[in-house]
Amino acid sequence: MPRGSASKPLLVAAVSVTAVVGLGGSGLLSPWWSQFVDDLGQFGAGAAATLACWLTAPRRSGAQRRWRLWMGAGAFGWTIGQFIWSWYQLFRADALPSPSAADAGYLMLPVFALPAVVSLAAARPAGDGPRRRPGQLVMVLDGLIVVGALFVLTWATTLGSVVRAGAGSAFAYSVAIAYPVTDLVLTVIVILLLAASTPANRAQLTVLGAGLVCLTFSDSVFAYLVSKGADSMPPLADAGFTAGMALVAVAALKTGAETQARPAARRSRWVQLLLPYVPVAGTGVLLIVQLVRGIEMDGVEIAVETAVISLLIIRQAVTLIENAVLLDRVSDSQARLTHQAFHDALTGLSNRVLFHDRLAHALALHHRDGHPLAVLFCDLDDFKTVNDRFGHHAGDRLLRQVAARLRGAVREADTVARVGGDEFAVLLEGGGDPGEPAERIMNAVGRPFDLDGQTVTIGVSIGLVEAGSALTADVMLRRADAAMYAGKRRGKGRLVRYRVDLPDGTGSSDLAEALAATLRDGNGLDVHYQPIVRLADETVVAVEALARWTHPSLGPVSTDLVIATAEEIGLIRLVDDFVLDRACRDAAGFRGAWEGIAVHVNTSAARLGRPEHEETVRDAVLRHGLAPHRLLLELTETAPLPDLAAAAGAVRRLGRLGVRFALDDFGTGYNALAQLHALPVHEVKLDRSFTVADGGRSEAVCRSIVQICAGMGVTVVAEGVETDEQAAAMAALGCDYGQGHRFGASAPLATLSRDAPSPA
Description:
Elements: H1 3-24, H2 31-56, H3 63-91, H4 101-122, H5 133-166, H6 170-195, H7 202-227, H8 235-253, H9 270-274, H10 277-293, H11 299-342, H12 352-369, E1 373-381, H13 383-390, H14 392-409, E2 415-418, E3 423-429, H15 435-446, E4 449-451, E5 454-456, E6 459-466, H16 473-489, E7 495-497, H17 510-521, E8 525-534, E9 539-551, E10 555-557, H18 559-568, H19 572-588, E11 598-604, H20 611-624, E12 631-636, H21 644-657, E13 660-666, H22 672-678, E14 683-686, H23 697-712, E15 715-718, H24 724-732, E16 737-738, H25 749-754
Helix pairs in contact: 1-2, 1-8, 2-3, 2-8, 3-4, 4-6, 5-6, 5-7, 5-10, 5-11, 6-7, 7-8, 13-14, 14-15, 17-18, 18-19, 19-20
């Protein structure tokens, strides 16, 4: 109900109560008519409360319906009692006997109001979670404890003497006690429910509780006046009866938890926890005072105090049980969450997080005491075909069957994990050849699978990596993945052991990372030299500087692999500049038979035309004091020249300095003849694929190139000369210079200069 709608019944109730009280106590009416108006207002309020509860209950459900039915029954009984009371008071000459039927009607209100307020406090909006019945029981116990303690306090001070003075029989005595006790119970229960954690129906409960408090107030005034011998109740004191029932009607008309949003704020639980102990402590102080003053406890005090202590013990037991159950639930929830966080929901295998953690722990043991371990990275072959053909549900069933076969193919101590859609990883610990469980996995997965009567056969590609020094979990997984992809490229269904030069699916490899580190610090990188000779007399006329790299575990890595890897990672510039600087330094120091010969240095043709490249060449030549004409840059072309005109301009500018140029591996690059025409080079190095003495097509191509170069005044050097026959054939075709193992392999400068041939 909107706020404006809820305020209208409250306003009507307030106006009605004010009118009744004002008219009854105004003195304008005779005593009989004043009493009639007062009693009529109370009866009308009770009837309104009864009708409001019972007429709105059928339109509600759950707790909202239950509390209205309970409260309607209590209001109906109270209204009947009020009718009997008013009848005797207004229309009978004899006094109403005590106890009477009116007392029975009045006492129906607290009897039915107690379950009504408890039901209302327990009402929750849909989706608000399960009820905690032990928590409700604790609240009821707290209420009874507080009621008992307060009853002992009031009985020992004033209530006991009042009740004993006004009760002529045991039955009358019980009825007299029932009024203050039931009123006290309702008041305390309402206070406890409002002090508890914020319920969804706080506003509704507040209105209902206010009505019950008004009824309790008038009941207490009535009991006091009776004990003093008064013959009537002032209208103002009776206002609590009228207002109380009016507020009950308003609470019934007010919308509850079905549309009301739950408040965000939470009340402090300290009030709820400490509330029952405060009055109990008060009774303890009272008993001590009575003992000091020599006052004996009567039977009522003893009985109620005993009940309070018993309820307190029961409350503690219920609280302990509730806490134990809550702890068990929390523990179970934590266990479920932990399992879900570290396991794959589909297959039940470890997930990537748990696998990574166990791999890191196993590596720590390996680094500490040499504990052996290996990782298998498994990827199902053609799994997408299964999904496309049978659907994703069938694919999920297949993955579960694969997971079971993987677990069956390895030892119990080994860890099997699902790390991707159709990717699995296995951590093998405990020694032995890791290739054996890998073969068992391939055989197990290779057997046919049954998917609802359909036979499916798939394969698996496996990458294997064994632990080495200074490896991390991430590196091992990446290496195993690289080995698996290498197997995929070779035709699937293969087991591949990792090697450091294996590229992964992106073209990168650990070799690239190691080379990058080497280029940054220079460790492991060196320059070797291979002689270039005059074929007529085999005199060394130049040497070619070649990059050489010795890997810590692989040993020497081929130059082609070094260059290709450097180009992949974009660091070919560093390789070229390192070799250029070292070659200029070494050539400047040549003595003896090599004094004055040229040095050839490879450089990427794509760098030509860039100002920083020209500056690097000038700086290397001038810094080491090398005569510029002794430096010849061999243009290697593994990609098309971005700007042929800019490259030609760079060749001319460096040529004016004295630096010479050659086209390397001529005949295999991009548009070789166009470059020969556009670039003013001094030499052409004929690719080894043409330096064959077979008398066929290669020899014809070689003869044509030599003739073209001779016509342009360009020297030709034959590469890859391995035999005397090749050397003789190249010389016969008009090629004056040669390079290859026939004249010496590349070697460190010290070795090569010691074994260098002397001029003829």
